[in-house]
Amino acid sequence: MSGFxxxxxxxxxxxxxxxxxxxxDFKPCGSQxxxxxxxxxxxxxxxxxxxxxxxxxxxxxVQTRQRVVYLNGVVDVGRxxxxxxxxxxxxxxxxxxxxxxxxxxx
Length: 106
Hints:
Blueprint: H1 2-23, H2 31-49, E1 60-65, E2 68-75, H3 78-89, E3 96-103
Parallel strand pairs: 2-3
Antiparallel strand pairs: 1-2
């Protein structure tokens, strides 16, 4: 009977360890993907900030999540919106662009 108790105790002790190990896999992003997302954001922002047609630096805000770039802000004409999207798509590591930039029609 003591062998059964030993096995039962081991099984019960291993359950929390297995649960905690499984929880480690459900982080919002691993350190490498977060670094990659941060690098993509910085690269896209740097490219866009060099384009005076898009307005002052920071006019188009950039966020990246799992290598998908999200663009927000306001530009004067549709061509500028398409240019921002094109620049983001050409940035290494980008898999998709969600372009929510508004056009002011001024």
